[in-house]
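Summary of Year 1 activities. Much of the first year was spent building the evaluation harness for sequence design. The harness presents a backbone, in tokenized form, and records the residue chosen at every position. We chose the following record to illustrate the format because it has been used consistently in internal testing since the harness was completed.
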């Protein structure tokens, strides 16, 4: 591909995206192809924390990026610190005068040459771009200029994506407030919906569900119990067990929630997720007794997150269960009450990120490295 044409096509591909993680993954692949290199890694800069965290990568076989979002201290890499501070670039080869820290990194990865530059967003260093090659190359001026030109264009699209994320955060906060208000008569609700939505988002990340679908699942998790507005308060606040008639009424709240959302066109994809959010993998859930794959994936994610949250918070009729016991219960019920894949993903999230300290900022920092 002609390099200049490649930059134009890459910029067009980036403009078509609205998710930052996808943008960075596409950028990594495009830079690798345009420069005929072997790999590209893009990290997000945490200036206050003095670190860079791997966010997206692409490598030609036989290489591949580890899927964990590794974090590196900037101070341990003087050339990296210089590039971030100046907004310039750095190129080196093991056959030349590579900085010792960068040379060790190249040897660890199995490459011989490196081109490094900043990804600027809104006038500040947002990310670090590193292009790797197995051969000895110096990345001449023309290649560096092409890389910098695409980095500038990518920065514009990332800025747009970050604005979209901020708007989405505000939207989620508004809906969270609405959900809390509508569920206020439920005695145990205390940021219940927001916490389940954040946990569901983390589980979706672990399952590598695409961002657009993840957003819908988070929204459905936020609103999955909205149908409780139609359940008598006496049932919701009852301290003892419900009788058969009361359970029959309670089992209707997913349908009520779906009916509330149906008139809103934007919520069309949420309706089946909310309607099935209390189904069980083994068919013993409600309201329709659906089994396994007949239950939407988003509903299976919500179900295991909802159950884990319920076990780990105080209720009017019992105290919260210890986290370790709740995790053991999730594991025990995997394959019966819960989709085993979703259950395992939740356990991985809780072990790695803790509970109840999951927030959107932590999800961004701990997100898997997307590899195209």
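For this record, the design step produced the sequence shown next.
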């Amino acid at each position: 591909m002609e390099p200049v044409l490649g930059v134009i096509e890459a910029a067009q591909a980036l403009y078509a995206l609205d998710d930052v993680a996808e943008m960075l993954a596409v950028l990594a692949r495009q830079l690798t192809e345009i420069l005929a290199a072997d790999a590209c890694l893009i990290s997000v800069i945490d200036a206050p924390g003095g670190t860079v965290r791997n966010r997206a990568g692409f490598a030609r076989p036989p290489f591949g990026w580890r899927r964990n979002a590794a974090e590196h201290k900037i101070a341990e890499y003087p050339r990296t610190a210089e590039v971030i501070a100046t907004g310039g670039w750095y190129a080196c080869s093991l056959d030349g005068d590579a900085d010792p820290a960068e040379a060790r990194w190249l040897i660890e990865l199995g490459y011989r040459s490196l081109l490094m530059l900043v990804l600027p967003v809104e006038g500040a260093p947002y990310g670090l771009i590193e292009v790797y090659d197995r051969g000895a190359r110096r990345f001449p001026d023309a290649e560096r200029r092409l890389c910098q030109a695409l980095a500038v264009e990518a920065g514009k699209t990332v800025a747009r994506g970050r604005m979209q994320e901020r708007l989405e955060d505000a939207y989620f906060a508004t809906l969270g407030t609405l959900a809390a208000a509508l569920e206020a008569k439920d005695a145990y609700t205390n940021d219940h919906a927001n916490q389940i939505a954040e946990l569901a988002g983390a589980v979706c990340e672990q399952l590598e569900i695409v961002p657009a679908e993840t957003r819908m699942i988070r929204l459905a998790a936020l609103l999955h119990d909205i149908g409780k507005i139609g359940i008598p308060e006496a049932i919701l606040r009852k301290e003892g067990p419900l009788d058969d008639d009361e359970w029959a009424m309670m089992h209707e709240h997913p349908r009520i929630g779906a009916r509330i959302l149906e008139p809103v066109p934007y919520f069309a994809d949420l309706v089946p997720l909310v309607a099935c959010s209390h189904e069980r993998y083994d068919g013993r859930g409600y309201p329709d007794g659906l089994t396994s794959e007949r239950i939407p994936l988003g509903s299976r994610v919500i179900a295991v997150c909802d159950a884990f949250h319920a076990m780990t918070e105080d209720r009017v009729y019992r105290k919260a269960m210890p986290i370790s016991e709740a995790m053991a219960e999730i594991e025990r019920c995997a394959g019966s009450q819960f989709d085993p894949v979703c259950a395992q993903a939740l356990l991985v999230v809780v072990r790695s990120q803790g509970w109840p300290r999951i927030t959107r900022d932590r999800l961004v920092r701990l997100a898997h490295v997307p590899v195209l």
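Residues 1 and 283 are 53 Å apart (CA to CA). Quantitative recovery figures across the full test set are reported in Table 2.
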